[in-house]
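If your schedule permits, I should be very grateful for your opinion on a structural question. I have a record of one protein: its chain in single-letter code and its fold written as discrete structure tokens. Would you kindly read the sequence against the tokens and tell me how you understand this chain to fold? Thank you for your consideration; the sequence and its tokens are set out here.


***
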Amino acid sequence: ASGKQRRIRCPGSGTTLDPRVLQRQNCAITVQRIGIDAKTIANRRLCTMTRIVLGSSSATRSAILTAMGIVFEVAKPNIDEKAIRFQDPAELVLAIGKAKATALLTGKRGDEFKRDGALLITSDQVVVCNGQILEKPEDEAEARRFIEGYGTHAAETVGSCIVTDAASGSQWAHVDVARVHFSPISDEAIDKLIVEGDVFYCAGGLMVEHPLVEKFITKMEGDIDTVQGLSSVTARRLLDEAIAARAS
């Protein structure tokens, strides 16, 4: 490639532009159009230099953060989720998500996270169907009952996202809700899902991304990543807020 810069002639005028200048102008226009200000961009650059810890062993949540371009590590919090009980699903997932953050901060790596000023991302999700809160199915019969129920009542996912500043203890939290409607899921599909076993690691045994399940979806209200356990929009916003709080 030649080291000489090609210049671009603007139609209808005698003006020529250096592509590097044009690129900078286009970038500025694009930033303005999508509503991202210079402060937010600076905060996101700081985010890339901050230690991010995902307090979850969920492969799906890891995949969502990876798709967002976030560099992070995984640390699994050790808590008894069944010991935390609330009748309101939003209260429940917030309490469990915050308990996971506390477990990380008081665990064997807590001092390390505090010293490094890590930002911890923790979350929890339940499925509500026909007024009942559904967590991970404990056995085959429960998994079958959960999945069969989605054919007659919509599955509502209720998920929390909590960002904790390990150094200060400050937290930013939000709950996202999505709703998925299904036609009756066949016995054959349910049998195969149970044999595979992954449903036992999902709230309500709900796996909307699975080929055996997605063909029965008739309507989805909300983003797919919200349904899968972590809203990328919420995670990004809370991280931005945590970084901005440090800069203020």
The mean pLDDT is 85.
